[in-house]
Amino acid sequence: MSPDTPGGSGAPAGTAVAETPPAPPRLEITDLTVRFAGLTALDHVSFAVEPGSIHAVIGPNGAGKSTCFNVLSGVYRATSGSVRLGDRELTGLPPERIAALGVARTFQNLALSDHATVADTLLLGRHRLTRTGFVAAGLRLPSAVREEARHRERMREIAAFLGLEPYLGLPAGALPYGLQKLVELGRALCMEPEVLLLDEPIAGMTPTERRHAAGVITAVRENLGVSVLLVEHDMGVVMRLADTVTVLDFGRLIAHGDPGRVQNDPEVARAYLGTNGGAETSSTTRVTGVPDPKTTDPKTTDTTEPRADGPDPGTDVSGASDGPLDGPSDGGEAGASR
Description:
The protein is an alpha/beta fold.
């Protein structure tokens, strides 16, 4: 990722726009299989994240999405198969080695300190890039001071890009939920990744927060040149953001392609609705996230949909005036519990 100042639809007015960064390497998953005590969580799954693209992995609860992310980030070890980033083999490497090679991740469940400030939380992402040793940092040698200043400057650039600059001095864990999700995204961006894994990045957000987050994800790809692989249950957002969609069901890949092709795939409809075709909910609503006008009462349907056009400058992303939060999804599967 370019060290230049980021900008774009996710950044506030006045932020400089960086030159187009070089394309990141291709992330290629080949015949990935994961078994837990005889239960198959992933069954010979293969797909590739093209450089500079937004790639979504979707599927019903328990389909294997979080297991896939855990393998890609080194939390789980694959039973067989291969994960490659460009010409580098990631299979079997520990999480810190994978992070050092340019793969950053956010998680479904937030774990931010109630006491660490937003600035300190973002600086945690700079740890892998820090070269100053313990003694030099403790003695505040000139080289250590210069490096710290560079990291803090870059951290402020990323905070401005995400609209977090006004909150840098506040405790991260005390912020509204939507802002906490942005802090976690910022911590991952501070690692200067080539591939960004986003595990349900907009789950639990209000409509206003979802629109802002969708704009930020688009800006990450367009202005920072980072490849994005995301898991998300909001199909409306997925179909608008993603260049390519991969669908998993019971650990198997059942569909792959552009959003238009995937949302019309009968196997995808069956995975979400069952073989009866959905007596209560139309396939259009469940697969695309958009209510079917033939089966929906317009008097009782909220037609507000998040768009990926980013927030207007000065938009309040706290979402305090938009009603209660939806609450995080429980869609992540945990290993053998599948």
